[in-house]
Design goal:
12 helices, mainly alpha, 333 residues
Length: 333
Amino acid sequence: TKETDWREVLVLVGLAIMFMSTSHCFYNSLLVLVTESVDLIKVACLQSAVGGFAAAILLTWLGVADEENAELTRPYVISCFLYAALWFVAFSVPMWLWLDESPPDSDDESSVFDSLALTWRSTLSTMRNTEMMKYLLAMMLFNDAASTLHAVYLVYAATIGIPTHQLLLGAVAYRWLSGLASLAWLGMAAFMGPKMMMMACILLTAASIVFCAWMQTAVHFYLVIVTMTVSHSGSYIFSRVLMATITPMEKASHNFGFMGMINRFAGFLGPFLFSTLSVALDERTGFLGLVFLALLGMVVFGMVDFERGREMNEVEMLEDRQARAGRKRRGSV
């Protein structure tokens, strides 16, 4: 409605991404804190199911799929953002009240500079862990493809003539299906390990990209929604479970934060590949480029030895504790 709108939106989007990324890092690291290894999959699946159903309830209550809201007027969009913020706060309160997080030992390094130095040493140790780096590279390639699909599928559906009402209905259905798919993954986890489940999710993501490339009708659009929802809920669950299995509790926040940082910095690859191929050739070729990216991530993922990665992390943590004890002894002399 005015010239500065795009600047305001850019600032708001930047702040939203920053806070969302930070909250995801801490939220994901809590999975290691509150669960034992045998409960990781169960807790991660139920966590994802609660998130999916809660978002679905909110979207349904806001009437996002109602035809009278299909025009997405400015007051309606603003009210949706405000209610979503309140919803987020409401669900954060139980976590704040019930989560029992032990305070750090009083003898640990506590100054800002010591904390930064510790973060740098942890980063270097993470980069020396070859299995961790292979896993992060695999997730970077896969997440680039998956996140690009999520960014463009609605826009692409709109350009081929799918009505706005159908697009909004699909967005609400996505959240309901996400909750159901999370429970389904919990049942399937009894028959396959998390690594095989993650590979199945990558293949299903590649299939959803192909379906999107050949989408022509509303039926095709809902097929994309179903396959994309099932694959995304599963990859969200099992990528965090696998990261938790390779991560000692002391390094949970750092490793999940490092994973989030790499994904954000490398997030240009998928959009760049898709846009380049789409402009040079056509949109279908752009989607096939994303399929290649996802399958390349699966190949790298298949080479990760999670047990060896866990052992390397534990050795690094032992050496770090010994080094800190040595520095404290020298400081007390």
